[in-house]
Amino acid sequence: MPRPAPNSTTAARTKARSAAAADAGSGATRRIVDSITGAIVERRLMPGTKLAEQQIADIFGVSRTLVRQALNQLSRDRLVTLEPARGAFVAKPGPQEAREVFEVRAMLEAAMVKQLCAQVTDAQIAELRAHLAAEAQAVARTDVSGRTRLLADFHVVLARMLGNQVLADLLEDLLTRSSLIALMYQSSHSAEHSQAEHVAIVDALEKRDVRAAVRLLESHLGNVERNLRLNPRAADLASVLQPA
Question: Is-above-0.70 flag for pTM?
Answer without folding.
Answer: yes
